[in-house]
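Quick check before the chapter quiz. The format below is the same one you will see on the exam, so make sure you can read both the input and the output lines.
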Amino acid sequence: MQTHSHNIWWLRIATFLLAALATASAAYWVLKWRASVSPSRPATIAFSEPAQFDPQALARLFGGAKGGTANAPLARAASHFKLFGVIANRAKGGYALIAVDGKAAKPFRVGNQVNDELVLHSLSARSAALAASLDGPITLTLELPKLAHP
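Here is the expected output.
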């Protein structure tokens, strides 16, 4: 008796390849179907900065500070600047990252002109002082926002 073992192996290999091809095709279509189904997304939480208030307007609301005050021009000037960061260095004076009039923040070195009227006078760990000149009195102090405790 003679068996045709040579023919049986070709049949087994062809069956295996056909089964692998069917499995790959099924996996492709399942993955394609899963990609088209949009996954449920968690709700997006948007945070905004705390509302800014005008202390002078609040004082007028509660009956104080009748008329104009001497700090009104200073309050208006302070709203033009926002301090984003400080690198205080005692030897070289350091740098402050300040945004002027809502534009992109730029680094200013102590003594550099911040706008037409003010220069960066001095720095501390969390604040920057602006003045009309390096020799003049401090006109405006910008402070970094308080750190949030986790």
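If your answer matched, good. Helices lie at 5-36, 55-61, 72-78.
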